[in-house]
Structures are given as structure tokens and as C-alpha cells.
Amino acid sequence: MKNNAFRGLIAGLACVGIAAAALVGCGTVDSAGTAAYTPGTYTAVGQGNFGDVEVSVTFSATKIVSITVGENSETSGLSDPALEGIPAAIVKGQTLAVDTVSGATHSSEAVLTAVADCVKQAGGDVEALKAKKGAKTAKGARIEKSVDVVVVGGGGAGLAAAVSAAQSGAKVVLIEKASALGGNTIRAGGAYNAVDPARQKAVKMTAPLLGDLKSFLDMDEKSFGEFGPTLATLKGQIRDYLASGSTALFDSVELHAIQTYLGGKRVDLEGHEIHGNLELVKTLTSGAPEALGWLESLGLTFRDEISTVLGALWPRTHGSTYHVGTGFISVLADNAAKLGVEIMLDTKADEVIVQKGRVVGVKATKADGASVVLKASKGVVMATGGYGANPEMRAKYNTYWPSMPLTMPTTNTANATGDGIVMGEKAGAKLIGMGFVQLMPSSHPVSGALSGGLWGSAESQVFVNKQGKRFVNEYAERDVLASAALKQTDGIFYIICDQDSAGNPQPGSKNGWGDDVDTLIKNHDVYKADTLAGLEQQIGMPAGSLQAEIAKYNGYIASGADPDFGKRNFGAPLVKPPFYATIRSPSVHHTMGGLAIDELARVLDASGKAIPGFYAAGEVTGGIHAGNRLGGNAIADIMVFGRIAGASAASSR
Ligand code: ADP
Asked: Which of 231, 364, 456, 514 has a CA positioned 20 to 30 A from the CA of residue 116?
């Protein structure tokens, strides 16, 4: 959900009349020596994550009296602390030297820029306000609490753990270092993979999917190690399915498990092989449908349509009826509140407290510097997410990508700094799979964001490089796509759509992320033309290149075979104008490694033994997705294992 009209009057001070007569000349200083303005209300816009953020500022002759944030498309929940907190801090301190809100940097900057513009319009001194320190907040008093379960991290995994622990009767405190809940989960696409016969009934079993399915019959159990029996079961299911003559889509938790295993089985640059842990993968794939039902029981609603998110390999991707990942957070947060979970924002965990080999609590620090000690009689759940926004940590552990530049952008929030991995390791946890990082092949080349473009389900996407040439099977796994993309000129490629595969955008409409499509086109994040030749011209591709490539590709759809890259799963041919090209490049998306856990979400030590009182869930853990995670498996993972971690901690003695 977006802040389509977030209109709180932010400052507590009374608003003066609009455009009151000028009492003090522009840029002059009043008798008290404070900044002076031409009184009135001024409006300006700043560039947020999703277009313009409109801000109105009312000035008296000597003061910034009030700030109102108006029309904008920032993500509510995620951006509220910036849209509310920054104006309040500016008015309180009469200063522009206000820190951006972590996790909502762009929204914060949008407000600061717009207010600075208004100050300028009112004849104030922007530079002086930027240099002026606001009133220093006093350090808060030390906080100490004793509960049953402490959850660290307020993303999807942490909230699922908190709700589940509270449902099991535990008294729960959840701490979150940002000023808002959500983490990477709220900004994720929200794709959730689960076998779901009721919804999948509407999906056709196409010839390419059938081809994919039959290919499992040729695979040898012996080369699948501990996954051999799962493959054997799957082969039996496929044979039964073929014998039945059914035309409905085939799916099973074993197919999901084998695809997760194959999608994650990788060898790094040093020759080390990694694959998912059998028990964890089975828990994920069999638990995903159940956790979906659990979310529905909590009030989250899912759309009927099933798709294949990029890199998911099979049509079992669900989307909630909420905007991208926001529903998972808002519904869980509502339930946490109802169940009496105490949520402490702006509270950063620093250390896990271990006594006599048992994890008994967490030491933390509030944003105002207050120290916090939380004692947990039953357990601590670590759910701090990954380290995608910690370039040094990425570079330190990477053994998979030939290079992991510190400057590579990320889809992650700035808070994904690997804190839980560092704290967990100090508390004796084993780390697993740390050499592997998933790059999101199709991200914004500058911001690294997932949003900001137009495309449809994976089979309908067509990738071309700057020369207008395809370079990969667009239905492949994400690491395959990212690796191929990085080999193209400048690591840049374009997703080409026609009107239908772009989701049929109309002038003034928004894409699935809530981005204003006209703004995307204006900013050259998306190119739009009535013909493919027009796209070539706008982007600077060789004349005729894209036209020839798409004609060839449409021919492959007609024949059902792609001799260039072996794509088998196609969408409809690209024929309906206008045509769109979204510029993309890989960015750091999901850090695969983390704390080793078992299927009860207990954190394991170096010898594989569970550390009493210590649990973990979500991206902070490793071992499930191994070297590469299937698209759509992360949200399923955090809900399945978050829920398990909460219940395990609550039932611990
Ligand atoms: P997951 O998908 O595994 O739930 P998310 O990234 O969605 O991961 O959520 C992790 C959350 O943990 C984020 O909101 C992040 O701000 C929070 N976090 C990270 N480090 C700490 C810490 N040291 N203390 C408290 N919260 C933290």
C-alpha cells in the first residue's frame, strides 16, 4: 500500500496564515539572530523511491512553523518514519542537519531536499540551516526486561517467529534496529512458492513444462546423494501422472524439493560443491503450503493467479493481494500487536548473552544510546536477515563470483549488514554456505532496486544486450542469468515487452511496484516506442538489430524451440505495440550463507549440536538454498522457518 495522500500536519506548532504579508525582508536576520523568512506557505517536491514527494512548509518571520507531506507514492510502513520523523525533527530543531532514517534513505532525502527548496523560496539561508545542530536528544535510561522469547529483527522471519511464539503462549519482545518494521521483506516482490492444487488447477500443463517434467525420468538417483529417494518418489509420481492422461498442471512437494536442490547445487571457484540440506529442503517445500494457510488464517489474502517469478522454474508462485511484500509485514504486525508482542523499534542487538552454554538473552542499544538488556527464559530467535548491504562482508566471504566489487549496488535495505551472523558466530554457531551470494539479474543499474520497470511472468521476458541481441535462456536460474548479464557490454541489458507482456499499462497508470509508468519513461528507466525500430533508435542499438532478434524469437515461439539458448517455456509472441524496454543490470540480492540450523530452526554449533536456547530463521541462516535460491523460495522460507523458530523457542525448556 502506498501513501497516496499522506497528509498529516507534522509539526505541533500552530500554522500561520498562508502568504501573510512580508514582515522581514528576504535573507535578513531577526533581532534574536535566528534565521528569517518571508512568511507564508511554500511547496516543493523531492525525488523519492517512487517519484515525487510533495512537501508544503509554512514559515513565520523567524521560524519553520509546520511541514506537511502531501501526495506521494512511497511505500507506507517503510517510509512512514521518514515522512513523519524528518519533518518533526526539522521543526523541533529548526535545522536541516537531520539524519536520514535508516531503511528509508530516499524518502528522507526527498523530504530534506523539498524542505530546503521551500526554505530557499522563503528567502532563508539553506546552508546555515544545514550547519545548525538540532537540540541534542538526551541518552535514554537503561532498559531491562525479562520475557520468554526475544526475537531479533522485524522483517518477515522475525515477525512470523514472534506471532508463532505468542500463539504458543510465550511472552515475546521483538527488537528491530530500524525505525520501522519490514526489512528486506517489505521491499521484496512478495513472491511465495507453494504447491497449491486448488489455485494451480487454472494453470495449463504446456508442452515445454511437460518436456521439463519428463526430463526428470532420465535422471539417476545415484547422482542425487541423500536426495535419491526424493527423486525416486518424484519419478513414480510423474509416471502415474503420464499414465493418467491428465492435462492439468503437475506439481508435488517432491518436485519443488528436487528443483530447490538442483537450483541450489553449485560448485564455487575453489571447487567446493554445495547443495541444500535434505531435511531443511523437505521442511521448506512441505511446509510452504501449510504456512500459506497459516498466513491466510491470520488474515493475509492471496490472489487466485499463479505465475512463475523469475528463476522459480515452475508455475507455483503466489502473490498476496497487497502491494509487493507489504502484506506479509502489515498482517503479521497486526497479529503480533493483538497477541501482545512488545515491539521495540530503533533498538539494535549487539550481542547474544550466553551462560553455561545456553543462550539466555540479548544486549542491545537504542537509537538514543540507551543500553538494553533482554533476558529470555525460553529462547532467542535470530532473524536479522542477510549481509547484502555490507560490501566488506560480501567481499570477505565470496568464493563464487569472479569479482564482488564493493561498489556493486544492492536490492537490500541499508540494515542488511549481517549483524546476526557475526553475533551468532560469537555465540558458537557454525556458519554455512558463506561463499555464495545471489545476484538479482534484473535490477536498476544505479539504485540496484528491484522496482522501476515493466515485465511479466518469467516465460514472457526477453532479455537483449546493448547490441539488441539475446544472450541467455530467460527462464533459467538467477545465477545463470546474472552471470550471463555481467558478460554483456557494461553489464547492462534490456527486458523487452510488448503492450500485453508489459501488463497493458495505460497513460497515468502504475506498475506492480506502484511506480508511475510515465515517470519511469520520463527518467529513461523504461523506453517506450510504437515500433521496435523506435526502441532501437531511443536506446542507440544498431538499426535493425532488435527487430531481427524479436522476429527470430517470435519464430522460436511458433516452433516451440530456441536453438540459440534452449528456452522452452515461452509466453506469447511480442507483436502488440507499443513496445517497452526496461534497462537492467545485476545487483546483490540474497546472501545465501549464514547460521547453520536444523529443521526445528535450532542453531547448530561446529559439531552439529543444537545450542540450547538459540534459534534462527530467514536470510540470516544458511544451508537451505545452498549456492543459489530459486525465485519465490525466500518468502516461503522465512514464513515456514520463522513460524517453526517461534514455536520451537516457545516450547523450549
Ligand atoms: P528476513 O527476510 O530474513 O526476515 P529481513 O531483511 O526482511 O530478513 O528482516 C531482517 C530485519 O532485521 C531488518 O528489519 C533489519 O533492520 C533487522 N536487523 C538487522 N540487524 C539487526 C540488529 N542488530 N538488531 C535488530 N534488528 C536488526
From this structure: 514
